[in-house]
Amino acid sequence: MEAQSRRKGAARCTDCGRALAVWVSSDGIRPIGSTDGCPCGSTSFRVFS
Ligand SMILES: [Zn+2]
Questions:
Q1: Global confidence as pTM
Q2: In the chain, where the domains are located
Q3: Chain segment 1-49, per-residue pLDDT in tens
Q4: How far is the CA of 5 from the centre of ligand 1 (A)?
Q5: Alpha-carbon gap, residue 7 to 20, rounded angstroms
Q6: Residue 5: what pLDDT?
Q7: How far away, in angstroms, is 37 Cα from ligand 1 center?
Q8: Three-state SS across the chain?
Q9: Cα(31) to centroid of ligand 1, in Å?
Q10: Ligand 1 centre and the CA of 4: distance in Å?
Q11: What is the 12 CA–ligand 1 centroid distance (Å)?
Q12: In angstroms, rounded to a whole number, what is the distance separating the alpha carbons of residues 49 and 44?
């Protein structure tokens, strides 16, 4: 089990605007604690910079 380069970040759902804690990796953005994306059903996020 190799650790991929990922970091914790904060992102906002582009659909409902909810702010979520996320893992940012080369795979993409995944909400921490949820593999299904935002509770609203969206899987599109914009990372805070
Ligand atoms: Zn949402």
A1: 0.73
A2: 3-47
A3: 566 688 999 999 999 999 999 999 888 888 998 778 899 999 999 998 7
A4: 25
A5: 14
A6: 85
A7: 8
A8: CCCCCEEEEEEEECCCCCEEEEEEECCEEEECCCCCCCCCCCCCEEECC
A9: 11
A10: 26
A11: 8
A12: 16
Contacts of range 34-38, beta carbons closer than 8 Å, 24 or more positions apart = 38/13
CB 40 within 8 A of CB 16: yes
Phi, psi of 29 (to 5 degrees): -115, 125
Counting every residue, how long is the chain? 49
Predicted confidence at residue 33, as pLDDT, reads 84
Rounded-to-integer distance, Cα 35 and Cα 38, Å: 9
Q: How many CA atoms lie within 13 Å of 35's alpha carbon, on the beta-carbon side?
A: 0
